[in-house]
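We modelled the chain as a single entity of 436 amino acids. Its sequence is:
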Amino acid sequence: MPQQILDNLNIDALNPMQLACIEASKTKGDIIILSPTGSGKTLAFLIPILESLTEKNTEVKALVVVPSRELALQIEQVWKQMNTGYKVSCCYGGHAMRVEKNNLSQAPALLIGTPGRIAHHIRNNNFNPSFVNTLVLDEFDKSLELGFQDEMGFIISNLNHLQKRVLTSATDLKKIPGFTGIRNPKKLDFLQKLSPTKNTLKLKSLRTEGSDKLHLLFELICHLQGKPCLIFCNHRDAVDRISALLKYKGVAHGVFHGGMNQEERERALIKFRNGSFAVLISTDLASRGLDIPEIEAVVHYQLPVVPDVFTHRNGRTARMNAEGTAWLLFSGEDTMPAYIDEVPEHVILSQKATLPPKASWQTLYFSVGKKDKVNKMDIVGMLLQKGGLAKEELGLVEVLDFASFAAIHSDKIVSLLAAVEAEKIKGKKVKMEIAR
């Protein structure tokens, strides 16, 4: 593999799991990759895909099927950062169908998508599945949990010339469904080798005497004092209750669950990534496959019923040997689940709850994106030159298909908006406002 690929990704060297996957991919046969969240599975299957491509690719050669839109976009972003020179397309629910159909009219070498959307494009002959020789089912077990069996079975039944199947998961797969077509796969199990150790992932618990844990959670958020944290709930109504309390208390935060539309979820993740708020409240939709930064604390406001979900939630912190804390919140009647074999450190918080500091960043929205031929440097250049920002006053910039977002230092965003109100980007008048 060219060193340039690693340089493009700012990686010094591949880890043992990635090297093992690349080596296994050189031989015939199917592969199962078991490795924790955050250990680099995406790169482990993308590098062999790259090495399998030839210069003249006029059809889809590799297909990656994922359970969520967010995971699809994350994989697409890694491929683009690799700067392979090969076209990639991404298909998922909520994305404009006309855009996807147009992208597929000149077939990408790599196609990434959710089961329902990929099945739709096959049914409508928007790409020819007969040329696909590599299939990756990423976070395979999650796809089955979400009920994608029929769509996945349909997709695989149309891949008539598959040479290799790759299944990935962050939890052990008890049984592989027959529709996958996998026979005698090579199993690469790095779950124990790469899982967070007790030294890197700390378990801590809080308990309240009554049945309502809302105030206990608020005290914990105050205790964390602005450190990035991801709060997990089992149900959307709990997410909404917590959000209502934090809004009343004046704590900046975001929410993320399946009841929101794609644009709302996208904005929540962007603002969490760029530091516009440090608290994200979510259902298990955010437990894996999301492109979010290293977070210092995972909070289990409600503990999951099954151990696999507990593992995936905790995988959002203490990733690849970084340190992190998982907080477990108990009411008076709650008991420790049998699947937790480590005794958490019980913590008693100070009774005096001091609000976390205000976020140093706010997010600026732009009404243009990639489809308008706008790139990151166009936005950065305009903000620095026309807006008069210093480099340290500009944070993360993200360019999507039809919109862009930039983190601006909080005390500069109002004056910046006044300075660039009449500016154009690529000769186009642009709507700019603080993202809601």
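As a brief sanity check on the tokenised model: The chain has three domains: 3-194, 201-346, 361-434. The first helix runs from residue 3 to 8.
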